[in-house]
Amino acid sequence: MVRNYAPQGKPYNPYEATFRIPPSVTKTDVRSYLWAVYGVKTTYIRTANYISPLRRTQLGMRPVGSHRTYKRAVVGLVDPFYYPQDMEDMDKREREKREKWLEERFALKLVTRMKRHELIRMSQAGSKTWRFTGHVRRDKILQSIARRRALDARDLKQVETELAERRAAGHPILRDKGPKSKPNKGQSSKKVLTI
């Protein structure tokens, strides 16, 4: 069930209910379902099919997107029905009370956080080195990148000053490293330079 559409400035019609149903459900199915399950009497039922645009897969094989197709049924009611109040229609105190009730029953904030974490984890699928850093907001990610760059610049500056001090003191910057095994008589010994 979805909220009825009420044009701007016109009152809400309590004698009408709107449903989104699968395309295979007929008007008589809706009428009998409402009567059998809820005991609701109906006066009329109007339906409209909303066909989703189809597109091809990346390989161009088969059309996809039909799962978004639905049927809208507008049902006339004998007795009035008022849709539960939206959060936007409530005053501040009622909204806070409703949010607190929803949080106690369904832990919506935790679920949202877990969904974001799972989305990030799944988007990194196949990466063995991935670990959650705790940053999902753009500003936090940019701060983390700036912090890492500052640390890299500091380390680079330390290496530059160390090399300058060694040069000024007359110490060699590159050291000779001897071979690990003795060379054969016919071979000359090679020296490896390391930093």
TrEMBL record:
Sequence intervals crossing the membrane: none
Compositional bias segments (type: Polar residues): 184-195
Source superkingdom: Eukaryota
One of the record's GO molecular function terms: structural constituent of ribosome
Key words of the record: Ribonucleoprotein, Ribosomal protein
Stretches for region Disordered: 167-195
One GO cellular component, as annotated: mitochondrial large ribosomal subunit
Annotated Gene3D superfamilies: 3.30.70.330
GO BP annotations listed: mitochondrial translation
Pfam families registered for this protein in UniProt: Ribosomal_L23
Basic and acidic residues: bias regions: 167-179
Protein family membership: Belongs to the universal ribosomal protein uL23 family.
Protein name as it appears in the record: Large ribosomal subunit protein uL23m
